C-alpha cells in the first residue's frame, strides 16, 4: 500500500511513520542530547511501547523504523525530519546538529513504501517538522527559530507554491535557549480543524491574531502544568478530530480539553517525553490523515 497525503493536522490518523527506541536511546548520554533529570532509557522504551499500543489501538497503520544502535537517540521523534503533503514527502534538513543524519532514514523508508519524494530542504536551509502547522490544506504556518531558518522557509515555500500552498512564517521566542527544543508545535497543538490547545504567552503575537481572524477557538493550556511539564502538557496528538493522546499527570490541561469537547487518553511519559523534550505529536510522522 502506497497511500499517503496529509495537509491537515487532525483528520483520522490512518498511516504513521514511527521509530521504536532501542539501543541508541538506552545508551544515550543525557547531557549530550540535552535530556532532563527524569531521563531513564529503559523506562523510556517501556513507556514508548504503551504509547505505540495506543496509536495501534486508534486504528492507524504504523510504518516502523527500527533503532539498530546507530546512536541517533532523537530519531524516535519522527515528526521532525520530514513533512508529508498530498504530493509526496518533503525531506527536511535538521537545525539540531546531532539530528542531521535522520532525514536520510525517512527518505529510505518512503522509497521502500513507494511514497514519492516531492523535494528536499538543503543547507544552509533548515526546517524541522515540529515547526510546521497546516492551518488548512492550502496554508502552512512555519515557526522561524533555532531549528528552522529563513533560508529553509524560502526553500519550502518555493517547493510548495506550485501546488497552491502558501507558507506563512512567524518568529518564535528563544525561551530556554539554543540547546533546548522549542518548536511551533511546542506552543500550539491542533485538536480539530477549528480548535487548538495553545500556550498563548509563547505564541508569536501575529500568529495569535491570525488564529483569531481565522476563527480558531483556543483552549488555553494552564501555565503551571505547562511549566511543570517542560511544555509537554501541550503536545497532544489527535488520532481523530477532538480525540487526542497526551502525557499523564496534567489533569487541568486534560479537563480544559474535555470541556471543549475532546476525548483524552493519557500515558506515562516522564522518562520519555518530559525528559527528552518531545511529546506524542513529536513521536509520530503522519503519512496519511483521512477526513472522516
Ligand atoms: N516536534 C518536536 O517538538 N519534537 C521534539 C524533539 C525533541 C528532541 N530531543 C530534539 O531536541 O529535537
Automatic annotation (TrEMBL):
EC numbers: 3.5.3.6
Record's keyword terms, sorted: Transferase
Catalytic function, reaction form: L-arginine + H2O = L-citrulline + NH4(+)
SUPFAM superfamilies, alphabetized: Pentein
Cited Pfam families: ADI
One Gene Ontology term of the molecular function aspect: transferase activity
UniProt KW Transferase keyword: yes
Name of the top EC class for this enzyme: hydrolase
GO annotation, biological process: L-arginine deiminase pathway
Pathway(s) it belongs to: Amino-acid degradation; L-arginine degradation via ADI pathway; carbamoyl phosphate from L-arginine: step 1/2
Protein name, as recorded: arginine deiminase
Protein source organism: Pararhizobium antarcticum
Amino acid at each position: 500500500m502506497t497511500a499517503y497525503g496529509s495537509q491537515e493536522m487532525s483528520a483520522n490518523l490512518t498511516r504513521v511513520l514511527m521509530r521504536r527506541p532501542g539501543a541508541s536511546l538506552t545508551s544515550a548520554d543525557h547531557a549530550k542530547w540535552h535530556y532532563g533529570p527524569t531521563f531513564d532509557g529503559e523506562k523510556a522504551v517501556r513507556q514508548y511501547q504503551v504509547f505505540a499500543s495506543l496509536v495501534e489501538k486508534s486504528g492507524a497503520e504504523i510504518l516502523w523504523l527500527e533503532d539498530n544502535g546507530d546512536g541517533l537517540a532523537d530519531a524516535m521523534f519522527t515528526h521532525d525530519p520530514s513533512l508529508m503533503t498530498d504530493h509526496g514527502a518533503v525531506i527536511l534538513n535538521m537545525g539540531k546538529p546531532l539530528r542531521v543524519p535522520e532525514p536520510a532514514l525517512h527518505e529510505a523508508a518512503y522509497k521502500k513504501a513507494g511514497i514519492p519524494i516531492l523535494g528536499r530542504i538543503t543547507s544552509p536551509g533548515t526546517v524541522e517538522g515540529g515547526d510546521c502547522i497546516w492551518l488548512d490544506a492550502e496554508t502552512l504556518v512555519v515557526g522561524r527559530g533555532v531549528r528552522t531558518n529563513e533560508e529553509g522557509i524560502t526553500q519550502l515555500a518555493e517547493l510548495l507554491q506550485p501546488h497552491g500552498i502558501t507558507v506563512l512564517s512567524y518568529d518564535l521566542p528563544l525561551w530556554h535557549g539554543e540547546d533546548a527544543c522549542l518548536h511551533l508545535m511546542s506552543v500550539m497543538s491542533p485538536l480539530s480543524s477549528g480548535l487548538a490547545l495553545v500556550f498563548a504567552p509563547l505564541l508569536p503575537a501575529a500568529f495569535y491574531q491570525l488564529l483569531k481572524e481565522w476563527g480558531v477557538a483556543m483552549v488555553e493550556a494552564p501555565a503551571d502544568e505547562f511549566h511543570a511539564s517542560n511544555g509537554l502538557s501541550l503536545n497532544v496528538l489527535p488520532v481523530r478530530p477532538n480525540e487526542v493522546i497526551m502525557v499523564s499527570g496534567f489533569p487541568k490541561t486534560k479537563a480544559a480539553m474535555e470541556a471543549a469537547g475532546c476525548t483524552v487518553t493519557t500515558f506515562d511519559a516522564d522518562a520519555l517525553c518530559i525528559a527528552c523534550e518531545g511529546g506524542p505529536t513529536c513521536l509520530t510522522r503522519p503519512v496519511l490523515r483521512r477526513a472522516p
